[in-house]
Amino acid sequence: MNRIRLLTLAVAVVGGLAISAPTVAATPGSAPSLGEWHRNNYNAGEEKLVCAELSPSWTCNYQVPDGSGWFNGRNVTDSWTCPAWFPSTICDNVTAVYHGVVVYVPVGSKLSGPSARVSQDYVITEVDGQAVLQLYWVDRFVCPWYRTFEEALAADFECVFAP
Question: Domain total for the chain?
Fold first, then answer.
């Protein structure tokens, strides 16, 4: 992707986040970090999150061909407890946790159309120098997301489902 197109995308996303989620505000002297996370949806295609990543809160846009969604969450690292059924590779390597709600909206619907609200935790881990977002649908399942789609394709991952 050329630099102008990337810059345009970054400005559009950050501008969209500012309009859509005014609760995310940079602290004085800081700016939001724009981050991407990717998942290989069992070889059915790419799922992508574009996030404004701040220490106190995250706002992310979920992007797939048949819909989109918005996550808004706050940092709960200090009070979060790793579920007993999570693999130790997650629990032993947590660097941050953001708890919030995502609203999924199907393509073609107006914001007043059918949508789904889901409680989620974004559990950030680091293993062997690689950051991995463990996207946790609270009390349902957890799936890994990676900084690049290439990392997602190369990963030998499995979602883990609650017992």
Answer: 1
Dihedral sign for Cα 107, 112, 115, 120, please. Answer: positive
DSSP states of 71-133: EEEEE-GGG----TTS-HHHHTTEEEEEEEEEEEEETT--TTS--EEEEEEEEEEEETTEEEE
How far is 23 from 19, CA to CA, in rounded Å? 10
Alpha-carbon distances, residue 27 vs 19, 55, 133 (angstroms): 17, 9, 23
Residue 99 pairs with which residues in a beta bridge? Answer: 74, 121
Phi, psi of 123 (to 5 degrees): -100, 110
Q: Tell me the per-residue pLDDT of 13-49, one tens digit each, with 9 for 90 and over.
A: 333 433 333 333 334 444 557 899 999 988 888 999 9
- The whole domain housing 136 covers 3-161
